[in-house]
Design goal:
mainly alpha
Length: about 55
């Protein structure tokens, strides 16, 4: 769902010839999304290195 909002924001910047403030806002959205992906990857790698998730059997 978030991916769509980022794409929409980027296309808005491309089509509207956005101001600097708008461009900074779009860059902030993209960077926070990238950071959240990195955090998820870190969590998953930490989690798998400790012990695997319990099977649901």
């Amino acid at each position: 769902m978030k991916r769509k909002s980022v794409g929409t924001a980027v296309s808005l910047v491309e089509t509207e010839g956005a101001s600097k403030e708008e461009f900074v806002a779009v860059a902030a959205v993209i960077s926070t999304e990238i950071i959240s992906v990195i955090n998820v990857k870190k969590f998953v790698s930490k989690r798998s290195s400790k012990r695997p998730l319990r099977n649901l059997n």
